[in-house]
Structure formats: structure tokens, C-alpha cells
Amino acid sequence: MDSIFSRLKYYGIGFGFGLIFVIFFFQNRGCTWLPDNRVKNSILDRVLVLPDSEAEQLSKFGITRKDLTLVLNDGKVIFDESKKEGNPKVYVVEKEILFKGKMKFYFTLAKESFISEIHFTKKNALKIKNSTSGFGELIHFPKDDNLIFPDSSSNVTCQQEVLNLINPKDILKYLKKSGKIDFSKSHLLNSPKPEHHLVFTDNKGRKIGANVIWYKNKLNITNFAIPFKNDCK
Q1: DSSP label at 145?
Q2: 47 pairs with which residues across the strands?
Q3: Can you give the pTM of this predicted structure?
Q4: 169-207: per-residue pLDDT in tens?
């Protein structure tokens, strides 16, 4: 019996040291159950959007789009300064930026929305709301090659054929290359599902719009805005 307890004791000590090693060496990235990482994963499950008003300030603050995505790699969530209730929730993430010192970034989580807006010029999470005007650049997508899911209605199918966008992966490719959200045509407070209006440029240089909702972790396209006359209803 004593040998069993001894083994359990040594196992517990080893497990404890291993856990400490994971937390400090890997900077929490291997522990999805930690509060910090649960928030970061919730954000990374969405499309990260940089509002144009914030993009204009990038050079002034000396940061890049890559810096914005790396914030969620090893930044620290400041729960005391975050807005953990309401719509949207806003989480403050602090990270050391080379030559700039510690900076705070604000990530929105609107209810049932597939986007998370990034702000860094704001100073108070409680005052940040869903954007309702202007555009936002789509700068990071969840790792899912089948992220786009066009509606199976006859109208959307007809629109895909007219646009020659039968393959949803082509739509995702264009969104990653040139995609933006038009906040003025989006309705992030809609119930039961917020509606997002995305715009992108295809390989023919045509600017195409799409109304999109979040459905089962997919971007469900419910309608295309076609920039020319067509017979789809």
C-alpha cells in the first residue's frame, strides 16, 4: 500500500512540474481551459476585422497587421478592464510591442456574429460599440478551408452560376485577398442572427457584395449583390 501512495505522490509531483513547464514555457498556448486562452480562442474562431478608421492609425502607432494577430498568441487578457457583459463584449489584450512597450488592444465579440473588430486607439472597453459606418478589412480567418457555405436556395445557386462562383473555396480566396465588411449595410444587432454585408473583388475585377450570417461555425451566404443585370430573382 505504501508503494502505491509513493507512486501517486511522485506522479503528482511530476504532473505539477509538467503543468508549470507548459504554462510558462509555452505561454499558456497548450492549455485551452485557462481563462485567457478560452477568450483568445473565442476571438480566433471569428474573422478578425480592422476598421478603416483604425487602419489609418497603424503607421502612427508603428504597428503592423501581423502585430495585431500576434497579440492573440502571447498577449495577456486584462479581465478587469474588459467589458464581459452586453453586446458586444469587449476584451482587452495587452502585449509588449517591439520598440513600443506594452500596448492594449480591444477585441469585440458581438452576439452570434462571426467577426471580431480590433481597436487599439480606444482607451475604454465600455465605450466601444459595434461599428455602424465605414468599412473594415478582413485580416485573419479561422483555419477552415470549408468556411464558406452558400445557401442552397435556387436564388443563391443562380447567382453563383451567373458570377461563376460555384466553388465556395474561390469565394473564400477572394475574401482573404480583398474582403471587407460594409458596416453601413450590416446589422450586427439583428435577432436571431446578425447580418453582415461583405464585399470582395473577383478575378475579373468585379466588386461583389454578399449578405452573410454565422451558421454552425460557417459563413452562410444568403444573397449576393451582383453588379450587373441578371435573371436571378
Answers
A1: T
A2: 115
A3: 0.85
A4: 999 999 999 999 999 999 999 989 999 999 999 999 999
